[in-house]
Amino acid sequence: MGNEKSDRKPSDFDWVTARRQCSEIFVFEQLRREAEANVARRNEFPAGGQATISFNDDKYMFFVLREDIPRIRRWVRFESNNQDGEGIHITNSEDKTFIVHLALDDEGECKLSLGDDELLDRWQLLSRMLQGVLFP
Fold first, then answer.
1. End-to-end C-alpha distance for the chain, whole angstroms
2. Which stretches of the chain score pLDDT less than 50?
């Protein structure tokens, strides 16, 4: 019918597997790869002045850092304790902390939430968190 979505899930949609793939561990790794790609892409363009933008990570954490001369630093840190249910913690250089929780939306897609009712795609979360570092 004309108004139905073409990506509508079948009535026997395997939401259990979809929710398992929407785990904090899996999504954290996706965010890590995408944030690193965002930094690489941003570094293809002049940052202005003598700014450097870098991506750094270890097992349970990654961060994006912007250093401008003279010594102005902006950063965003993403952390996961590798335990589902704890949320992905994001802290920035303005001492703001966010906890990201995950859920399947009504279309069966993995979405991220910052505690309000708004559900975000990964790119939307990264855009909101990294905007001030990549484009101050």
1. 46
2. 1-5
